[in-house]
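Hey, can you fold this one?
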Amino acid sequence: MKIALLGTSNGVLKDGYARFLLTDQHRHEVRNFSLGGNCSIYANYGIEKYGIADSFEYCVLDFCINDENFCDYNTLTVEQDMAYLYAALSRFNAAKCIPVILLLTNERYAFHLEKSPVYRHHLQLARMLNIKTIDFAQFISTSYDESRIRDIYRDAAHYTVEFQRMIANCVSYELGQLPGRGAPAAFDFMKITKSGAGQATYVGWTGDVGKAALIAWPGQRMTAGSRIGVDAAPRWFCGLVYWADAYTVGLKIADASVTMMKNLRLTYHGLFVRNMFYPLLADGLEIYFDNGESQNVQSDPTQCSAEYPKGLADARIDVVDLVLSDLNPTTFGIFLCAFFEIMEANARVMSIDQGSFALHGRYTAELAE
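Sure. Predicted structure:
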């Protein structure tokens, strides 16, 4: 069984659930493409970059926990989250690989799932697209009480070693119970990809930058005077892949009507995919290096709260790639959320034949177990 893991830091930790799956090689062939500190926009990029949909039998996607954080920090809307997850899942439409959603939540929502900004929406999306979920969030809320919270979480967003092992064992078991791929549903209305040939022009780069990491992605160094011209209309610029280090600052992104400033500086370092809270149409878009001197420009909300040091020498940004969408993620996400709310309401009030809507029965049965 060939399994791809695509998620967040619980899959990256040296004693995270991926470690226990990776040591189970006699039963499964497992590759871990998880990347800490990212939301579900990374899922789209990772699936494309590694050809996961065509190279593996199963892909376990674990983004609920980080999507909660991005939404809570007001750097991602629920609607955008739905659009990014939907686009990632659509990558598996007509592919041999079966996606499975692993639902993990932050400690603050462990016994208050109704307050999570994204948990219910991830369940909705999985249910409507007939995608299997491994719901540890529900398991915790129904099988434990708050007095045992330290048995589950080592900190606000990461699980104890014992619980990581439990997650790995459950993932291994559940994947072994899944049937083969059935007839795929057609739900590929929106696609998110890396920038293609001819879509971006790079000016003023200082050359390739090699990086050593769990996942080694080379970048190019952007300094004062560097710029990127993006002409990929009718596509939308919705994210950036880059390396963050002690010298990282920010970018100015300008179209015909607005100039945005995006702070990319972090207190922690590594490879990140950062979404644009305000996606911009990639039609004559200009992206410039910014060292914190911009005045009177609109700021794009970001988790990167670290201030630029004054007089920072060697300020730079090591850019790996741009992330583009063929639809505005905000607009499409609003449509998705409205559509799913209507479907949920209809499912509650209509008398539904069990055979014609077997998915609803399977979903409720799983939650009841």
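The two ends are 26 Å apart (CA to CA). Let me know if you want another pass with a different chain boundary.
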